């Protein structure tokens, strides 16, 4: 059918509202490319976003979209998917939105194996509200609420998703664009809960406060901080393991629930016969 | 005001008082064409705490759903008996399990029955409630045995039906 | 007619009403005294091809309702005090995105964990103003098992007709009481208006004449954008002050302009009444009994029972106040509905409260006691 990224991006809404040097545009392009590669019908795609810089991503995509409250994108996406399993559902969330305030929904969506693709734009701080620390901020990093260095240990998004039971988990950075597109395409095609943790740059806050003066410097940082050896990664110390952490096939919620619907129909008939109607 | 029959079923959580309240209420409402309201009060413990089920039956519409001045009180624990002994009129039916409760003869229509002993004879202490229901229905006649049997059939799944029916029949015979 | 006569709990009748209304989606988190609704929904929904999902908390449940609603489902949830508090933010989401759905709150005694198994009617104001920002909301309140069934259908109908969340404010007494209920099948069922324009022309927030925009569903031929942020008719963000004012006023007017249709009340013995009781939920049952007792003693008493709490039935209360000597408002809180009654009555006649917050139902005698005191 030959769809291109311009079937999925609303050109009139460009340029992006994000700061100069922000990597979110790279992720949007990778998502649109994945849609085109998979030749998906925009009518059957639903983008769910929460709040934050990355929560504005739905404004640029020519698909259905639901922009919800802070942290709740996955919960809303769960409702969309459960009510209409034919839809391709993506939740686009930042590290604050998806992993910090929405962390509970993240682990439960993984455990439940909802057929949703979560794409985390992980820039280690709350960009929209002025660069405060989040649940993924590396230790000792300076942010606007950790001026003396972050004391808390961050989540490794991929390890968290893996432990919670997601059948597809991968990490790339906005520097590694080819890998990024490949993982996002695989994630969208995968049945079940899939996660792509995208290490992103926030030159405006995180970069500036951590002695990286420009987006270029931050890209350099991503390059030297990344390793394809998954066991060498350590988020707390700014060492980013990139690659596929999990790639398995497992029945998703919808498939398992269809069986429940079948059993329930039979059971109701039996119960009605037994009790003469409830 | 006395257009209604008010029943209290009181004892411990887990004794099945809500179930017999439901059976009684449904018998009156569905099989005798009357109105009935069954309510309940319970604590946070699923088993063992004070539990109470009430049934109000009337041939008219029932406004206030709870018991104001009981006509029938069944108690299956000493705590329940003690709670109601000072609240009943002289002509209120007061039925209790004489195996676990010391009756004080506060009502003219007070009757103790060895309900636990009979349950042990039937080798099932989970059916105290059904024995008590049999006693209550036979003694007070507030609904017919036939209606109760129909209600019981509807409210108890087939695999437990026989044992409950036997207990109910035994209760009928005791009074 | 295939009316089915059953002996059900109020909570069970809510599920029957939802199913009759066409509900196909439930997301919730168990909480006393509402759990029977979740339990029965989990049995019945999959049997009719619907979905029951137990979420990780009430925040997620409410978010899932909005998602399911936008995907075309008639969605509902049930909760009580603490869970209702957690839902507030995403009730706002449903209001702003205009996602039809029904939220049942089987009220229990609070604050916080409170008396977890005991009834109260203290969430009247929370139901009205629990979520932040100026908004309108529809709140219905049942006093019997039959009303649980019928008003539940009405709740879905209002949600669909006005593209809004509807709050179903039950209480532990009504939720757990069992009564005879006729599961009528003659109540009309309303479905949301589907757009008629060409798909590229569709604007998900462009209202019809009634102030309500037609709603497509995700996966239909209409691609659309729904947003919690201030948006214009296209659904895309728009921060222009004039637009914000227009949107907030429309969301308010689409409910308040239809007050006549939304407001449901019942009257007992009010024709010549000089003493008017105003009540709702379980307390309305006590009030009705009190009216009968008063009538037997020759007093001209009557009851106005509110099925719709919000929008508040100003007009009905005003009419009855014109003829009454005084009003009495029994409620299981320290005075919530009474403040609305007093606002409407404007001190023309005295209004007295009968309030109880110990986790027990107000008895008819307590209401009579108050009337004796003031008469």
Automatic annotation (TrEMBL), chain A:
UniProt key word Ribonucleoprotein: no
UniProt GO BP: cellular respiration
Signal sequence residues: none
Keyword Oxidoreductase on entry: yes
Domain Thiamine pyrophosphate enzyme TPP-binding, chain residue ranges per copy: 59-198
GO molecular function, one term: oxidoreductase activity, acting on the aldehyde or oxo group of donors, iron-sulfur protein as acceptor
Domain of life from the UniProt record: Bacteria
Keywords: Oxidoreductase
Pfam families referenced in this protein's UniProt entry, alphabetically: TPP_enzyme_C
Stored InterPro entries: 2-oxoacid:Fd_oxidoreductase, THDP-binding, TPP_enzyme_TPP-bd
PANTHER family xref list: 2-OXOGLUTARATE OXIDOREDUCTASE SUBUNIT KORB-RELATED, 2-OXOGLUTARATE SYNTHASE SUBUNIT KORB
Protein name stated in the entry: 2-oxoglutarate ferredoxin oxidoreductase subunit beta
Source organism phylogeny: Bacteria, Bacillati, Bacillota, Clostridia, Thermosediminibacterales
From TrEMBL, chain B:
GO molecular function, one term: oxidoreductase activity, acting on the aldehyde or oxo group of donors
UniProt keywords, alphabetically: Oxidoreductase
Pfam families xrefs: POR (PF01558)
Alphabetical list of InterPro entries matching this protein: 2-oxoglutarate_synth_KorC, Pyrv/ketoisovalerate_OxRed_cat, Pyrv_flavodox_OxRed_cen
SUPFAM superfamilies in alphabetical order: Pyruvate-ferredoxin oxidoreductase, PFOR, domain III
Top-level taxonomic group: Bacteria
Domain Pyruvate/ketoisovalerate oxidoreductase catalytic, chain residue ranges per copy: 13-173
PANTHER family per the UniProt record, alphabetical: 2-OXOGLUTARATE SYNTHASE SUBUNIT KORC (PTHR42730:SF1)
Protein name in the entry: 2-oxoglutarate ferredoxin oxidoreductase subunit gamma
TrEMBL record, chain C:
Superkingdom to which the source organism belongs: Bacteria
Domain Pyruvate flavodoxin/ferredoxin oxidoreductase pyrimidine binding as annotated: residue spans: 16-248
Keyword Oxidoreductase among record annotations: yes
Keyword Oxidoreductase tagged: yes
Pfam families listed in its UniProt record: PFOR_II, POR_N
Any one Gene Ontology molecular-function term assigned to this protein's record: oxidoreductase activity
Protein known as: 2-oxoglutarate ferredoxin oxidoreductase subunit alpha
Record organism: Thermosediminibacter litoriperuensis
